## 1
Amino acid sequence: MLSSAAARYSSSTKFPVFATYNFLHSFSCSLTRKYYLHSHSPKPNNISDAVDTVTRLLHMWPPPSRSHINKILGSIVKMKHYPQSDGFCFLYTQENFQDGLSTSRCSFDYTIKGLCFNQNVGKALDFYDEITSKGLKLDEVSYGTLANGLCKMGKTTSALKLLKVMRRRLVKPNIVIYSTIIHALCKEGLVNDAHNLSFEMTDHGVPPNVVTYNNLIHGFCRMDQWQQANQLLNEMISKGIQLDVYTFNIIVDALCKDGRIVQAQAVFARMVKSDQRPDFVTYNALIDGHCLTNNIIEAKKVFNKMVENGLAPHIISYHILINTCFKMKMVDEAMDLFKEMHSRNLVPISLAEDYQLNVRTYTAMIHGLCKEGFLDEAVALLDRMEENNCLPDSITFNIIIRYLLENNENDKEVKVLSRIIDRGVLKK
């Protein structure tokens, strides 16, 4: 159980000793080692083939090369599977091989990575207990995977305890492990704790890099602690650490959200001067900043500049502008932007994200039309939404039903309600 497995780091750390198993059977393989290795690819087509291959290889004597087995284990991890199969007995039989520990660490890394990837962090910790109780040692890669898994499950305190375990076992945490935990602490709003950890890592001979600083700056900006964020920026510059696109995007976005658009534009200018090419995240932050102050003219200028610089506007750009146009009762402009959005060949980030943004954009359009009294146009847009394979959600339907009721459009209301029932949004 994850809670019990992760809880071991909340107090004194004690690792139980498990019985040693010997899974490698002492019998001859009916196939010659040479024939089997040549007839089985290290990149199996499916999970069953992979498990079968590992199991047969384990029954060979002398044993096959670990690199061959590791390639198959890597393929299993990439398939996002961790079957409880005899094929993984190899991971528990290190004592059967006499040519050194380090050659099979990759196998342990794959196993821990597979378990953590599938959110079985508790099992990964149990596996860690078992191999360390046999005197086997893990490197910083395996510890980093465990720390990442704990952080993703919200067990940041346990990840911090893991750092102490590493030091006791004379394994030096690397920059990736520290940055992972710092990111998790900042995400939880524990920015001061994250900052203290950055001092600790420096004391242990691991200087922060641009990723570490980005996490801390983002954390302080989210907490409106601008002085600390600015101090970290100056620290980066004094240490010769170059600000990257993510650094500038964090600052521009935070300033825009705080209504400090003039300062955001100054940072944008410095970004360009530093030979860091703004991306659509940068431009969207500025567009949103102008829209928050109802400056739609400047927002459109930024939008046009983005296109002129060779960046295809994302649906987010249109969503921000359309919402603002309706907010300012600029219905015609909103409709023009909506038509333009559909006429452009937008570059998607991901299908799932684009689908959700499409629903939100249509809903914003319908809401804006309803507010301005264009109910027929709103119902027509609802029809068009479904024709474009973008199904309305409960929010979309709630908006249009409310306005139809308020305007005594009973016939239209009944038709929309029937549609809601047909879609399964509302049961009869």
## 2
Amino acid sequence: MWRGKARGLSFLKIWGCEAYVKRLISDKLAPKSDKEKEFLSKIKSGRKIELHEVREPPDHSVTAGIQQEPDTLEAEASLQVNESEVVAIAPHGDILILESGEPETYKEALESEDSCKWLEAMKSEIDSIYENQLWDLVDMPDNIKPIKHKQVYKIKTDMDEKPSVLKARLVGNGFTQIHGVNYEETFSPVAMLKSIGIILVIAAFHDYEIWQMDVKTTFLNGILEEEVYMTQPKGFEDLKNIGKVWKLNKAIYGLKQASRSWNLRFNQVIKEFGFIRNEEEYCVYKKVSGSKIAFLVLYVDDILFIGNDIPMLESVKTYLGNNFSMKDLGEAQYILGIKIYRDRPRILIGLSQSTYIDKVLAKFNMQNSKKGFVPMSHGISLSKTQSPSTPGFNPTLERNIGLQSAAKNILKYLHITTEKFLVYGEENELVVKGYTDAKAEYIAASEAAKEVVWIKKFITELGVVLSIDNPVDLYCDNNGAIAKA
């Protein structure tokens, strides 16, 4: 925001001036950018042009004979220009740079080549809001300032990172809310990854069904306890009541209390169907009926159904579908960036993060790097002084080289693990065991013991692992730590 004094305009460039385009691939001796003969001309106004149309072929004469290192780690990956980025010149002469075809504003959505699809996505969002009876159109009360909003556009991808659907989300500017006026509590729990892992192992051992559902327009289900007013969405105003505002009855994305409102609503609804919340993990629920048992795990809008009776699980799905707009995903295959592979005859379940790892490697240009066998090389010493102490501060190369080397080693190690799985199963009995190994052995053993206490309480409430009543073995390879314990 500009405050205090007028902003200078020296950074603006005229049409026809020299411009520079960042090279996608460069080496240590070559320039980082290519100079263009002429910037974009207004003659081409009104059409979309690809980035290569305004880029000169790079001059490789300086770098002849020099081999580029394949595992170069980009320090500022967010500044890298991808081939998927395009430059669009709007009819009025503005230049829009769009990444992956996702508009940043309502205007950009209307001027993009997929404008019809984005309009349809926005209409679908407004229809969902209307169906949920989210708002009442009212006159603006005195001394109350309504919050504003924006449309957030996203191209959703599947587990293989391929575009699947265009989504538009109406998001309130929650950062303008005032504590004690239009919001109070904001905390909302989510299921921990270790809890999900434990339940998946139990499901594999007992051969339980593992199903998955997705809640559509999740936060629109939360009921607001505070009075929140919002301006009418751009492009969907009531022309007969243009001066009125929305009084929100339910939460909307972007509000500070949106996640908490949804969690409270879901907790109320699922308990009415006979589920009991796990006191050690607030997003895990259990329902028992004779020999039938069902578990439910909630992570924001992702729900796992696990149980030994298909009709019972079907009844839970039907009940939730009557209360919320749901999408049935069938047997669970992908959750929180983790692929789930199951071999039921052998009582095995495998978890893989290959898609997520590939995404991280591509972000830092390490997808073609050498594969590493250890995550950390021996002898590397890291400290807080190697990290930026203030925003915008860049450590010198001498201070940062150790940190950069350590980061590259971790990414190389991740590269070799993309095809590996964390596999559970082939055990005659479910038994919790602990292992600890670190430089500070006694401290590590102490932290592991705390984790064991929590795991025992959590699994005890699940009620399906009989061995949890027995003492848990915690293995440590340091005699000093064992003696001190």
## 3
Amino acid sequence: MITLLRSSSDPCSKNFQDIWFPIVFLIVVTMHQHWLKCIVGALLLFVLSTCQSEPDQTDRNQPDVGQNSSTRYATCEMSPNLPLVEGMPQIYGRVLFRQGNPNGTVRVLLWFNGFPTGSGPQPRALHIHQYGNLMNGCGLTGSHFNPEGVTHPNHLGDLGNFVPQQGKIRAAFESEVTLFGHLSVLGRAVSIHQGRDDLGLGGNDGSLIHGNAGVVLSCCVIGITSPDLWSAHIAQIRGI
């Protein structure tokens, strides 16, 4: 009995509510002073409302996926740019990120569909942009992510060119970006372009700013996710 009472000391615990609330209710009912009934009844209602507003203890103890074992996973779910130029392909898919710790290397997976399947597949440029603002399609994502203030193609957000095969891009590579700290790419945008990034060799001002990669076909915002997506996609890419 003593053990049960000790385990019921939390007024929001199920044991406390099962044992003490009926007792308090009986005391209130048998009271003769009306004013005292009102006070005790109000206190009982207050405790009940407080318990109902608190999250379940299981939820409070559940670790955030972004803090799980210090390994951080992120995803970026691609949607076609709006308005998309007529005749441009509609690209769907995702970019996945994995980083084992704040000082570890980021691994990136690309999983895109929707490219033309005609002869001579064209390389497509992939960039991380400064802002995760998709209120106007992909037009408000800002410049390439470039916290070091260097010229293109040395931005942290310059991820390179990727060649579709049979209308798809499946790729895995490492990047110098991070998912931790003030330089984290979480909340920033990823865009895939109509054309090839000239890697700063185009001989004009645009080449040193954005690589003359053309219009954005599709974009997304990077956000924390669970390890499940990464595990599923990396297994499929290894099987290709």
## 4
Amino acid sequence: MCFWEVVGQWCLELAGTALNSFCPVETLLLTKFGGKRRSRRWRTGGGLIYASWGRFLGFCRRFRTLGVKVFEKGQARPIFPRKLPHILVTDVAGEVVEVGEGVKNFKVGDKVVAMLSYGNGGGLGEFAAANAEMVVARPSEVSAAEGAGLPVAALSAHWALTKDAEIKLDGTGKQKNILITGASGNVGLYAIQLAKLENAHVIATCGARNIELVRSLGVNEVLDYKTPEGEAVKSPSGRKYDFVIHSASQAIPWSVFEPNLSTNGKVIDLTLGPSSLFTFVLKKLTFSKKTLVPLIISLKGENLDCLVKLVKEGKLKTVIDSSFPLSKAEDAWAKRLDGNNTGKIIVEH
């Protein structure tokens, strides 16, 4: 086992199971590009299981738009998945059952939240191995379901706001006008809450059925993205945006954003396509005050720990759409592919 790995087994009643014995492991595998998936129970012995965590795990919108389609069509190979069969999902929470040599911060029985590597995945199953640097303690006030929803989506929102938009999350900064597109998606739902911690004036776009949900999280103005006003992303109060967190699945051209930006307005783009890359380069070359930057995240355990603490303090919550048992993981994955959920889909073992 890797020196820095922490092995977790996310079934509380099996917390004492020895991993160096033969043990049945249930997983959901991607076996063929183009959407072929199947469930499998296998037996692993003669060492530690490097398969999958299964206690609670969450799907997120960004994983769906950039992950599900990319994973299932093989568009990101050879970066990820590294090989087939591949055990899906990276966001997990549960209980540690064994630690690797040199791991000092965790012990058997610790409740934790973790993000697995994109290349290895491993979330949809009973066991997994994780790099200790991306594992953080989960206090009793934070449920496993709440914690499992955090890693990809909340880390994306946190990085976009604290690094690219320089939000401090403590209410001490100057009020900013922030537009969040795709606000009812998983990144958007976290971004709303984090932006409000800085007392930002938040304008959000979403579908009509989710307007009340985003309002309940503190949004100041809401635009139905299917209306002419929503398509133009114009603030109903006439405000210009200091920052835009563009997390909507549909593309919005720079020509729509630009007239709505303040003098030094910045679009932080999570969608990252050829058009946005071209705009990013063009604005750099022309020294434009109005800019677009792609979201490039440096994953850090300290940021995940910050998010877990915000949940503990009641300042951040995970919106949960539905829950499935691990035996129905394929149904959960199919629902995520359909894209009709609002909030996290949780798989529980």
